[in-house]
Design goal:
about 120 residues, mainly alpha, 2 domains, 3-stranded antiparallel sheet, 3 strands, about 10% strand
């Protein structure tokens, strides 16, 4: 569907003013823009914003994304399956129900243990 350029500009302006998406949608509908265009634009905007949202962990953690069997690569959104604390080396499994997560976590633990073991000789 073609979306009215004025609608896109108005939505951008409202989002720049930091209105939440649901409030932007309500404002646009009250201003008389066509509902199907507003809904399509807001859905597309939410999808893009959700894809670009920064991960919910701090800079002291590393996130590992695992491609699980059966997942398609094309159009796939990155997810975090394992979080590793850079300072402590502690692992947090975000998808413990997946067997691949456990396999990767075990390999990461082995690698961390080897690295710590070799670092003892250099200090």
């Amino acid at each position: 569907m073609d979306i009215d350029y004025n609608l896109v500009q108005r939505a951008q302006m409202l989002l720049t003013l930091e209105h939440p998406l649901n409030q932007v949608q309500d404002i646009l509908l009250r201003e008389g823009y066509p509902q199907e265009q507003v809904v399509e634009l807001m859905d597309a905007t939410a999808e893009v914003l959700n894809y670009l949202v920064p991960p919910q962990y701090d800079e002291h953690k590393i996130g590992i994304d695992i491609l699980h069997p059966g997942e398609k690569v094309e159009g796939r959104k990155p997810t975090v399956d394992i979080l590793i604390d850079k300072r402590s080396g502690k692992l947090e499994l975000m998808t413990p129900h997946q067997p691949e997560t456990w396999r990767v976590a075990n390999e990461v633990r082995k690698a961390i243990k080897r690295q710590r073991h070799t670092m003892k000789y250099y200090h």
